[in-house]
């Protein structure tokens, strides 16, 4: 029998293939070399200066749009993609957000709903990290209820003209292409907008106290004129953006287990080394209760992520099941981060340790891609048959 492994107490790693373990090691090594030494500094400065360089390195590893087929994408499994997300978010949720928005929102939107021309033009560059994408759905006055969006696309001859504002858009200021959702006479449609199109601006949002090592922007669309071919031909109505969100939420289900694991491992190391009242605080029952609860939370989250990943690979994963994962794994990761923070005492609030950074990042993760409340209502509706959204 194998020994008990505190890093993998339930032996979940045995469920992963050799290739998946190798992928995990490669992503972990990239994070160890290029992200971990700098991320606290980026976070403190509220900048993500290496985003472009990192995108190219991530492109070389094949993790951008990795679960998509063709057009330079890796065509990997859903579990492979999840394993990568877990490692990326163990470094920082901002890094995983870069990859999620690139691969699951912008690239997936083009891959699933775009024309052959869109795919040829954008996907190979985006898979290589040579072009960065963003995804504009949320508006200043419309977040959880995107059906009420006011950004409009109107016909002018054979062109489209877009007007409106999008808010809280990850990668916005560094993007080469934006997938923007707007109301049209036919319903909500998606548009592939090169960010150098006249009338498009993406000022960066400042004063964030969460996801500080991530670019978040407003998108300003002022009479942005696009050719007819800019519209995503496949998507009319909210099923277009919702299908993309479902992909990204799946990545979050895995990603947050990485952030939680990093908090647990930091707390465990700290508790073993920190002495009070003449012995390591790891020897106190109250500390052990916290560590045991954290370990159970992290491993339950990993099991749920793996279960959903297997269903996704089998083609049986339902959006309501993704809501289970998004709701509970983010909530659980936040609990772990908050508990780990207490184990570190005053050091728990210092950027010398990753815990407070993960904790504040997870506050954004709780809100974006459908708030905790929205996922609870989705599950509630699935259980009861009654819609409590409005
Ligand atoms: P609101 O919808 O105003 O909700 C406020 C509160 O009311 C929440 O608690 C919500 O759950 C609750 N609430 C609303 N309706 C109900 C109801 N019917 N019943 C019960 N409670 C309800 N968006 C993008 O399009 N692209 C991005 O790349 C992107 N990146 C982001 C990055 C960051 C760092 C953040 C913080 C957000 C990002 N978002 C992005 C936006 C995010 O998806 C929205 O913030 C989210 O959908 C919630 O919308 P809102 O902030 O407008 O909150």
Explain how this protein is built:
It holds the Pfam family Acyl-CoA_dh_1. This protein is of the alpha+beta class and about 400 residues long. Helices cover about 50% and strands about 15% of the residues. The strands form 3 sheets. A 4-stranded mixed beta sheet has the order 1-4-5-8. A 4-stranded antiparallel beta sheet has the order 2-3-7-6, covered by helices on one side. The chain has a two-stranded antiparallel sheet with strand order 9-10. Strand 4 and strand 5 (about 185-195) form a beta hairpin. The chain is globular and about 80 Å long. Bound molecules: flavin-adenine dinucleotide. Flavin-adenine dinucleotide (FAD) binds near residues 143, 144 and 389.
Categorize the overall geometry. Answer: globular
* Largest β-sheet summary: 4 strands, mixed
How many beta strands in the DSSP annotation? Answer: 10
Distance between the termini: 54 Å
Order of strands, main sheet, comes to 1-4-5-8
Which regions are unreliable across 5 or more consecutive residues at pLDDT < 50? Answer: none
String of helices and strands: HHHHHHEEEEEEEEHEEHHHH
Associated small molecules: flavin-adenine dinucleotide
| Average pLDDT metric | 97
Tally of DSSP helical segments: 11
SS-based class: alpha+beta
């Amino acid at each position: 029998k194998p020994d008990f492994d505190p890093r993998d107490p339930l032996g979940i790693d045995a469920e992963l293939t050799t290739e998946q373990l190798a992928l995990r090691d490669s992503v972990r090594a990239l994070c160890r070399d290029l992200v971990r030494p700098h991320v606290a500094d980026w976070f403190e400065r509220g900048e993500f200066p290496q985003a472009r360089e990192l995108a190219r390195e991530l492109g070389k590893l094949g993790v951008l749009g990795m679960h998509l087929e063709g057009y330079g994408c890796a065509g990997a499994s859903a579990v492979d993609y999840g394993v990568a997300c877990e490692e990326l978010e163990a470094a920082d949720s901002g890094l995983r957000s870069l990859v999620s928005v690139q691969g699951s929102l912008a690239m997936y939107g083009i891959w699933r709903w775009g024309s052959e021309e869109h795919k040829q033009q954008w996907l190979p560059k985006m898979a290589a990290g040579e072009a960065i994408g963003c995804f504009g759905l949320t508006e200043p006055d419309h977040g959880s209820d995107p059906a009420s969006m006011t950004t409009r696309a109107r016909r002018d001859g054979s062109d489209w003209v877009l007007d409106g504002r999008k808010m809280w858009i990850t990668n916005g200021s560094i993007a080469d292409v934006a997938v923007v959702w707007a109301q049209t006479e036919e319903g909500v449609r998606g548009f592939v907008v090169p960010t150098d199109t006249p009338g498009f601006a993406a000022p960066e949002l400042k004063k964030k106290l969460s996801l500080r090592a991530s670019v978040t922007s407003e998108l300003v669309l002022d009479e942005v004129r696009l050719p007819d071919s800019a519209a995503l031909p496949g998507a009319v109505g909210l099923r277009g953006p919702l299908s993309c969100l479902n992909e990204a939420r799946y990545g979050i289900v895995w990603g947050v287990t990485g952030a939680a694991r990093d908090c647990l491992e930091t707390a465990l190391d700290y508790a073993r080394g920190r002495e009070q009242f003449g012995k390591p605080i790891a020897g106190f029952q109250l500390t052990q209760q916290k560590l045991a609860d954290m370990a159970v939370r992290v491993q339950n989250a990993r099991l749920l992520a793996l279960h959903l990943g297997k269903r996704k690979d089998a083609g049986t994963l339902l959006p309501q099941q993704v809501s289970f994962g998004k709701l509970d794994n983010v909530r659980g990761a936040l609990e772990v981060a908050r508990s780990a923070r207490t184990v570190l005492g005053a050091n728990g609030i210092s950027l010398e340790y990753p815990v407070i950074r993960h904790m504040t990042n997870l506050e954004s993760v709780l809100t974006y891609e459908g708030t905790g409340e929205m996922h609870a209502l989705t599950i509630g509706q699935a259980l009861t048959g009654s819609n409590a959204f409005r």
